[in-house]
Amino acid sequence: MGEIFMNLNDIEVLAPAGDYERLCAALDYGADAVYLGGKSFGMRAGPENFTYDSLKSAVELAHSKGVKVYLTCNTLPRNNEIPYFEEFMKEAVDCKVDAAIVADLGLLSLVKRFAPDMEIHMSTQTGIVNYVTANELYNMGVNRVVVARELSLEEIAEIRAKTPADLDIEAFVHGAMCVSFSGRCLLSQYLVSRDANRGECAQPCRWGYHLMEEKRTDEFYPIFEDEKGTYILNAKDLCMIDHLDKVVKAGVTSLKIEGRAKSSYYVSIVTNAYRMAVDILKKDPNNYKPPEWIREEVFKVSHRKYCTGFFFGHPKDCQYYENSGYIREYDIVAVVDECKDGMLYGTQRNKFSAGDEVEIISPKEMYDTCKAEKLYREDGEQIESANHAMMKFSMPCEKKYPKNSIIRIKK
Questions:
Q1: Angle at which helices 264-283 and 20-28 pack, to 10 degrees?
Q2: How far is it, in rounded angstroms, from Cα 142 to Cα 119?
Q3: Phi, psi of 10 (to 5 degrees)
Q4: How far apart are CA 33 and CA 48, in angstroms?
Q5: What is the pTM of this model?
Q6: Which residue among 12, 14, 21, 24 is least enclosed by CB atoms within 10 Å?
Q7: Which of 152, 101, 104, 142 is nearest to 126 (CA)?
Q8: Distance of CA 182 to CAs 19, 99, 177, Å?
Q9: How many Å apart are CA 367 and CA 405, to the nearest integer?
Q10: Ranges of H-type helices in 46-104
């Protein structure tokens, strides 16, 4: 794995976009490509996703910034859904989407029929774990494989070495992990009739469980001596920001960030961290070491405890049994609208007060720490705190920050 399989300029930071706001966050903070879903055929039913009109606007905006757009068609559709797929793909073509992400071989054939010029990316839900499968998919017209999350770097390197050079390899490098194989899970369907393979997962792997004796249904026994139960299925989050050089040397072209259901703050911060890390990697791939402040950024979003998944072999420390909650040490409190004449004008997201110490984050830059000495309402009246949702405010600030810079505060 010492050899780098690709031109470093081809490395792609691929960010999630659950709606238009999160799309803009990914674009502002350095994504090379985004993946998003329409109102059907996508694996995330929870986010707002995109209508035809909003998808068309999203692609136009992304393309104006040189960013590609990949459309998720990665559910496992039933018979009654197939007749609607032709129109879905015709709209995708009309919107000039760059690629379709599919998991089902039937949909693969339909994408080739209805959108013959569109790239096809085979989803991680396909369960691609060897070079034979990757080669067969390539022969069927697939341009990219999103390898299963259960693969080690050595296994990915072998797939890269034994597949055509123009077959891209994509892998998740950050975000939530699924306890099932490549996201194919029936637990949610069994327990609450929400099909994980149709974008409706209720995440029962995050729930606490107890043992119950068959004839004593009112008595519950924790598997460990813990009144909260035991989170036996709860996986840690994936974080590979320290190991991007190894991922790239294994032959991964596209570095994928999970999180279409996450906040725009999450998309901004994590995309920014990986953007800066990849830029450092490109400058000196043989001596990659991201600065500590870039590493710290991925800890300043809501996250579970981190691990490195299966990349280094069997994940001995990737389950977390104490609880399924998130670690939240920072809150976004505002977004910058503009800076002029020594003042920062912004829109509030969470309450903060005059005198609070805040951090201001701009794309591709180390955050600044400063004190919000004074706060003013939109009409110019001085206030003690910005305490109304989405209220406009201003505060003294000599430095000019670009629009959509983020202001956050440590809890």
A1: 30
A2: 7
A3: -85, -10
A4: 19
A5: 0.87
A6: 21
A7: 104
A8: 24, 21, 9
A9: 10
A10: 52-64, 85-94
Query: For residue 232, what are its two tokens?
Result: 């036996």
DSSP codes of every residue in 233-300: T-BPEEE-GGGHHHHHHTT--EEEEP-TTS-HHHHHHHHHHHHHHHHHHHH-GGG----HHHHHHTTS
Contacts 24+ apart (CB under 8 A), 200-206: 200/45, 204/233, 205/178, 205/179, 205/180, 205/233, 205/234, 205/235, 206/231, 206/233, 206/234, 206/324
Largest CA distance in the chain: 74
Helix spans in 52-84 (H): 52-64
DSSP state for residue 41 in the 8-state scheme: S
Do strands 12-16 and 254-257 pair parallel, antiparallel, or not at all (unpaired)?
A: parallel
